[in-house]
Amino acid sequence: MACRALQTDKCHPGLPPTPSAHEAMRRRVDPGQMGKLRPGEVERLAPGHTGRPRPLWNLLLWTLLSCGLGGSAQGPGEWTPWRSWSRCSSSCGRGLSVRSRRCIWFPEEEPCWGDSHEYRLCQLPDCPPGAVPFRDLQCALYNGRPVLGTQEAYRWVPFYGAPNQCDLNCLAEGHAFYHTFGRVLDGTPCSPGTRGLCVAGRCLSAGCDGLLGSDAREDHCGRCGGANDSCLFVQRVFRDAGTFAGYWNVTVIPEGARHIRAAHRSRNHLALMRGDGRYVLNGNWAVSPPGTYEVAGTRVVYTRAAGPEETLHAAGPTSQDLLLQVLLQEPNPGIEFEFWLPRELYGPFQARAQALGWSPRQPQPREVEPQAPESPMAPAAPAAGPPRPLTPAPDPCPPCPDSRGRAHRLLHYCGSDFVFRAQVLGRLRQAQETRYEVRVQLVYKNRSPLRALEYVWAPGRCPCPPLALHREYLLAVQRLVSPDGTQDRLLLPHAGYARPWSPAEDSRVRLAARRCPV
């Protein structure tokens, strides 16, 4: 590649450098002087400098400046490539590393634009307990040395009350004065508990790109230096007034959500549930204390003011779906919620938000029948013989009729005395009926008060639908009182409504409540 002249010649392939340009190059660079510059010093030689030329070096450097970097020689100088990053300034905790470059420019040009040094935050494992802080070490270097023009020596400790926190301000132990020993070393924390580090006498904080003094910040989508164009802002108000007291679904907070906020002003309470059905906040009719809660890979800050105001905040991103609910105790004045979501996740969120439908992910326990204890006088079991193939025992119960569908749900919801969510704790089969012991968790409809523990009766030894032990169900039952008033039972009719609980079924039951005739 041929090069251009210093002033007016253009860069044309195949043309050798003009004598004036070659002579200027010889005056400009002496390789023997290249390594003698201090970091950050611009490399500029006087026009009268007469160094011994090296034609190959001159040719390569001139090609780099004139052709590889392009433009006219009349503009600003050119930077050399960045050198490698230095080692971290600290052996533990936070420190900084630095890299530098040099400016190459001619007498007729302007100096380079930009910085000759860049500083990057480096994070090492935390310092062990009892480690001496970096600033303390620098003050201790002056212990026992005479200062202030006297022969008296002192012991020095850091002093943080001086105006410039990046000066090495040290307090004389046992005395009421401090002395400034110049600047602290680069990489010294500005003050305890802050994120800034001192660089060349200035306190700098790192941007999201890790560079100290950088203005780069993450956008709401989590992209460093982004413009919020890779995500969407979801902001809505839940205004459902509710037809009964209890838990109502507000919205799904999907995996990947950021900058989450929910707030309302009422005596109601926000509730937060994991995807597996376990509550994080204000679940099972118990109010949680304000504070910070770890869930779904983020921290949820729950606040409840003295007045009727309640808020949830979380930075995100969430690592799993969450369900936001409200425990209604009075008419809902409106619940505001918002979050940022990646564009590719918005479509699936819309589908889940409409149906609130994902199946619970907890393992389903198997039902185990109680067995009679072995008698100590029972004969010993015979020695195990060759394994025999297991044949499934015939199911003594016939299949249940199909009871799915909206019409079936609406019929039993509107015609029942009680609708509630319950967990099956026990089961007792008798000759003509089956009795379930259940723990009531959430009441959707009731004609009279329910206790925390109730018995639910179903006709026959093979009730339809059957209820598995330890599972949670939505049940629609009727109250059955004997003519003489001696029996008062909750009856689950044959082929009645008993569905495994899920957020989707919860939402469908609430919709059914609105369609019952008055």
Structural features:
518 residues, alpha+beta, 6-stranded antiparallel beta sheet, 5-stranded mixed barrel, 6 helices, 25 strands, elongated
Give the C-alpha Rg: 39 Å
Question: What is the global morphology?
Answer: elongated
Beta strands, count? 25
Helical content (DSSP H or I, runs of 4+):
10-25%
Strand content bin: 25-35%
The assigned structural class equals alpha+beta
Report strand order across the widest sheet. Answer: 10-19-12-17-16-15
Number of DSSP helical runs: 6
What is the distance, rounded to the nearest whole angstrom, between the alpha carbons of the first and last residues? 91 Å
Describe the sheet with the most strands: 6 strands, antiparallel
Q: Low-confidence parts lasting 5 or more residues at pLDDT below 50?
A: 1-75, 357-395
Q: Roughly what is the average pLDDT, rounded to an integer?
A: 76
